[in-house]
Amino acid sequence: MNVLPVLYSFRRCPYAIRARYVIAVLGVYVSLREVILKSKPEELLSLGGRSSVPQLIDVDGSRYPESLDIIFWAISRAADNPLKDSLWSSQVKTQHNIKAWIKYNDHFFKCWLDRYKYADRHPEFSERYYRNKGEVFLRRLDARLAKKVFLFGNTASIADIAVFPFVRQFAAVDQAWFDHSEYNNIKTWLAGFLESEVFKTVVMAKYTAWEPRQKEILFPAS
Ligand SMILES: N[C@@H](CCC(=O)N[C@@H](CS)C(=O)NCC(=O)O)C(=O)O
């Protein structure tokens, strides 16, 4: 049995980034295992079923195979941290809307992001076509951020944290285009995350691929 919950993670994966971000800001400790997707460790594969990252295995063996499961797990472990109330509203209507934004990201935006990023693998349409499709999401996000600093008010919710790693990728496909785009509210919002200490030094800290007998990596590192 592990002393700490184990988080299988991959540094650049947007799903893993959002899980690590919530874990980091809530200060819930896990043992981080960096995974190379092309050579996943036997310990992850032998769990059976899906072997995507992030995945969390709690000390009692409970398994959380999706980034959102991990985010809610972290919130449930942070009972004494007042920050959890701004990340996840206690109001049912807001909870519903937070989930709707995450769904919109995961099931609509992500699909066009992948095509935009790898337009050469989807030659049916041009890179610009895929970018235009993704901009439908960006326009809505920007309009929302014109009214509030974050999606649900003046503090970040899990919707912001779940979405920003994907917008980061979209922006990076053609950084010059993004920098000159009209999405000024998104630029400010995104920079707030990317330039934060927690993102730069904790969430995106680099680790070598995990090996079974190595020393445990405590995350978030103090
Ligand atoms: N719905 C999953 C998606 C996770 C996912 O697709 N992760 C990618 C890396 S970014 C992955 O593990 N790909 C390799 C695989 O699926 O085996 C979540 O929210 O955690």
Sum up the overall morphology in one term. globular
Radius of gyration: 18 Å
Total number of helices: 10
> Can you name the CATH architecture of the largest domain?
Up-down Bundle
CA(first)-CA(last) distance: 24 Å
Strand order of the largest sheet: 4-3-1-2-5
Helix content: 40-55%
Largest sheet: 5 strands, mixed
Indicate the proportion of strand residues.
5-15%
Order of helices and strands: EHEHEEHHHHHHHHE
Which ligands are bound?
glutathione
CATH topology of the largest domain: Glutathione S-transferase Yfyf (Class Pi), Chain A, domain 2
Q: How many E-type strands?
A: 5
CATH class designation of the largest domain: Mainly Alpha
Please give the domain count: 2
Low-confidence stretches: none
Structural class of the secondary elements?
alpha+beta
Mean pLDDT: 97
InterPro entries: Glutathione-S-Trfase_C-like (IPR010987), Glutathione-S-Trfase_C_sf (IPR036282), Glutathione_S-Trfase (IPR040079), Glutathione_S-Trfase_N (IPR004045), GST_Omega/HSP26 (IPR050983), Thioredoxin-like_sf (IPR036249)
Keywords: Transferase
Protein name: Glutathione S-transferase
Pfam family, one: GST_C_2
Key traits:
single chain, 222 residues, alpha+beta, Glutaredoxin, Glutathione S-transferase Yfyf (Class Pi), Chain A, domain 2, five-stranded mixed sheet, 10 helices, 54% helix, binds glutathione, Glutathione-S-Trfase_C-like
Quick structural summary:
The chain has 222 residues and is α+β, with helices and mostly antiparallel strands. The chain has helices at residues 14-26, 42-45, 67-77, 83-87, 92-117, 127-147, 158-173, 175-180, 184-194, 197-203, and strands spanning 6-9, 30-34, 55-57, 63-64, 218-219.
